[in-house]
Design goal:
The chain is about 70% helix and about 0% strand. Helix 5 packs parallel to helix 9, helix 6 runs antiparallel to helix 9 and helix 11 runs antiparallel to helix 14. The two termini are about 40 Å apart. The protein has a two-stranded antiparallel sheet with strand order 1-2. It is mostly helical. Strand 1 and strand 2 form a beta hairpin. It has 2 domains: about 60 residues; about 230 residues, MetI-like (MetI-like fold), CATH 1.10.3720. The longest helix has about 40 residues.
Amino acid sequence: MSSKVISQPGVYRRNPVARWLAADTMAGIKRQRMLLGYLFIAPTIIGLLVFVIGPMLGSFGLSFYKWNIFRPPEFIGLDNFERLAGDTRVFVSFRNTFILVVMTVVMLESLALALALAVYRMANKAFATFLRTAYFLPVLLSGASVAVTLGYLFNKDFGVINYYLGFLGIDNIPWLTSSDVVLFTIALTTVWRNLGFTFIIYLGGLSSMPGEVLEAAEVDGATGWRKFYRVILPLLSPTILFAVVTDVIKMLQFFDEPFIMTRGGPGDSSRTVVMMMYESGFGNLDFGYGSAIALLLFAVIMIVTGIQFYLSRRWVFYG
């Protein structure tokens, strides 16, 4: 509202909200801005309440019940968690998930940082722009389409990857049918799809580094590996922390690639925690047990994230 409107208190005499907003000129403007700010963030808050916090609270409550949709929920207390403690398949799925997280995050961070450094130092800006677009393009694809396509490429019998490896004298590798290789195959697929996002994060971090610090380091004789280790990495450490935390949280929720490419096989060698949640809830219609698995995964994500932030105090430089 403008000061002209605020200067006409008679218009708001019968409206307490308008009277509160137009109490006096400066205070009224501050209140109007505050209200406008709340209106702008209201859609986000409503979305979080409806689609995030609400389902989380519902899942927490449902974990104490036995429910299969067709019958009313039956309160069973901690039975779902006792069953969870003795379910070896759940612990196998957590082991597979952690192995995938380690392989994927290590490859993601190292490759994304190397590519970001290469593009950042590139003199040809047009070619650098092309590479940024090319690296980020897979991020726009759905996980299902990527999993289906690479599933065919990794096929043991007619996949194009084994076809070209055959020219090098390498026998057909059972990328998706061997318990020794399948997790690495899924990790490669996931890295290819998500590399562009982490690459953009690192490229943004490199672009925001103060140029005068880098120039001063070069004047002092810091070049090559020494400059990277002593100057660039400390300046980039907050960006590395953000990339690692977001990638770990994302990869702890593996679902698309293992579900579409292997259905958790062979056996349970590529079954992840989210797959166990899906199968318990939508496969076996045991939504209470699926909710218990979801709560355990939520607790694990919180613990892992807390450990990362605790350890970051020793290596992240915010200067």
